[in-house]
Specification:
Helix content: 25-40%
Number of strands: 10
GO molecular function: ATP binding; ATP hydrolysis activity; branched-chain amino acid transmembrane transporter activity
Keywords: Amino-acid transport, ATP-binding, Cell membrane, Membrane, Nucleotide-binding, Transport
Family: Belongs to the ABC transporter superfamily.
GO biological process, one term: L-amino acid transport
Distance between the termini: 40 Å
Protein name: ABC transporter ATP-binding protein
Bound molecules: adenosine-5'-triphosphate
Low-confidence stretches: 1-9
Structural class: alpha/beta
CATH class of one domain: Alpha Beta
CATH superfamily of one domain: P-loop containing nucleotide triphosphate hydrolases
Length: 285
């Protein structure tokens, strides 16, 4: 976890473009199995210390974008065929996932992926395996993780398989934090969780961001929740960014309200209908 100072809400806001980019994704194209074109020129920018949401429905390309950043595409027979991805100005497309962890980028994959037969604490400790700063430093991080996730401390000796979905999601995030990341790529943290637990998880993300300065890029279908906690959002449709903006502006946007927040537009129930398609075309124009 970074200890970099982080602006508080009492300080005047710095314009987003003036903040240094931690991550810059520029016009990437991703193809699976040499033929399936999934990302068609995605660009996004994550300033240091921000919480940025990647939004969109099923199959929009959110997970693929995160995989491209953390270099986990090869295992899926996917590759970045165009564009560039930079971390603090350094090209990272050819780095291995382990090298990215060393540079402070860790992904929490969709579906949590805890080691079912290990205890919560053993799961957390696996997240520290790349660290070389010694047992005492790792123990301090573990205590910090427990301070953010008191539920995990209570369940530290429980086998992960017998913990709740919410606890497993917390365990997956806690395990990522054990690597002392600068940036966490969080894939669909709300998936399959009760609303109250989703809220609890997002509150912890906000706390980590504010107190530790950890940067988050989170892929989420739960637009309402994500836009309550993110600073900025990108909406993906069919492998393209169709809209981006400050979270508040997106929450107030008529199209986002209608198609992603389920408010208003009574005659148009889905972004798949004809009128929305025209509107999408306008976004893409
Ligand atoms: N390993 C793969 N091989 C081939 N196609 C894939 C692979 N992974 C994803 N895709 C395809 O890429 C597209 C984008 O998928 P992706 O998982 O990135 O979307 P998503 O926005 O994260 O959706 P979801 O919220 O459903 O996970 C989909 O059409 C999907 O079928």
């Amino acid at each position: 976890m970074s200890t970099a100072p982080h602006p508080t809400s009492s300080q005047p806001a710095t314009p987003r473009d003036a903040l240094p980019a931690l991550l810059d994704v520029n016009g990437i194209e991703v193809i699976y199995h040499h033929v399936i074109l999934v990302l068609k020129g995605v660009s996004l920018r994550v300033p240091e210390g921000a919480v940025v949401a990647l939004l969109g429905g099923n199959g929009a390309g959110k997970t693929t974008t995160l995989r491209a950043v953390s270099n986990l595409l090869a295992g899926e027979r996917g590759e970045v065929t165009k564009g560039r991805i930079e971390l603090r100005g350094e090209r990272i497309e050819r780095l291995s996932p382990a090298e990215l962890v060393h540079r402070g980028v860790v992904q929490v994959m969709e579906g949590r992926h805890c080691f079912a037969h290990l205890s919560i604490e053993e799961n957390l400790l696996t997240g520290a395996y790349t660290r070389t700063d010694g047992k005492a430093a790792i123990a301090r991080t573990l205590e910090k993780v427990y301070a953010y996730f008191p539920r995990l401390k209570t369940r530290r000796t429980s086998q992960a398989a017998y913990t709740s979905g919410g606890e497993q999601q917390m365990c997956a995030i806690g395990r990522a934090l054990m690597a002392n990341p600068k940036m966490v790529l969080l894939d669909e943290p709300s998936m399959g969780l009760a609303p109250q637990i989703v809220e609890e998880v997002f509150e912890i993300v906000r706390d980590l961001n504010r107190k530790e300065g950890t940067t988050f890029l989170l892929a989420e279908q739960n637009t309402n929740m994500a836009l309550r906690y993110a600073d900025y959002g990108y909406i993906l449709e069919n492998g393209r960014v169709v809209m981006d903006g400050e979270a508040q502006a997106l929450r107030d946007n008529e199209d986002v309200r209608e198609f992603y927040l389920g408010m208003g537009g009574t005659d148009r129930k889905s972004f798949r209908d004809v009128k929305s398609y025209k509107r999408r075309k306008r976004w893409l124009a």
